[in-house]
Amino acid sequence: MQLIVISNPEAIPNEAGIINQLFEAGLTRLHVRKPGYGGKQVAALLTQIDEPYRHYIALHQHHALAQDFGIERLHYTEQERINTDAGKLAAQNKQGYILSTSIHNMAALPSLKWFDNAFLSPVFNSISKPGYMTNLAESFYLDNQGKNLNVIALGGIDISNINKIKAMNFDGVAVLGTIWNEPQIALSNFKNLKQELQILTENHDNR
């Protein structure tokens, strides 16, 4: 299972430093989501991230920066995906970009022809957005039949419930609040999640 970190939408003190520490600790996918940032602000953050790690980054906004920073992954919000011409998505696919998008129900999956990953949220009640409640049943199970892309669980995930994500058969987890609500312990929280996910995967493989 993939473990993905989404950046805090707001600026965090020493943010690039923490991000570099997360990569050093084994993070292989960071989604840079800064909806209130202009292109220059996003570029400034990317510049501070060590170059060897930049190919692990997915951009949510300012996709035009991808080429300058060697970024291969682009993310679309649900509304941006709906508003984007299929020809543009096909062209980005052809250029070698790996596309991901956000969804809020499973019915959207068959329409995601050009995407490799879909983030389904909220799987649990959100940590970073108080009052953002899940409508997913506890008994939910992701059926692999007919699924042609990775489905990533997002929303309310921490060390206490990550085992449920594995049992639900998601292809990965994406976390935001668990990492950034307490930036001073972001690194240790990431390491704990990574270790727990590794244990869950090993136990599953040894069945």
From TrEMBL:
Pathway: Cofactor biosynthesis; thiamine diphosphate biosynthesis
Source species of the chain: Mucilaginibacter sabulilitoris
Domain Thiamine phosphate synthase/TenI: 5-179
Keyword Lyase: no
InterPro entries documented for this protein: Aldolase_TIM (IPR013785), ThiamineP_synth_sf (IPR036206), ThiamineP_synth_TenI (IPR022998)
Keyword Endoplasmic reticulum: no
PANTHER family: THIAMINE-PHOSPHATE PYROPHOSPHORYLASE, THIAMINE-PHOSPHATE SYNTHASE
Keywords recorded for this protein, A-Z: Thiamine biosynthesis
Protein name from the UniProt record: Thiamine phosphate synthase
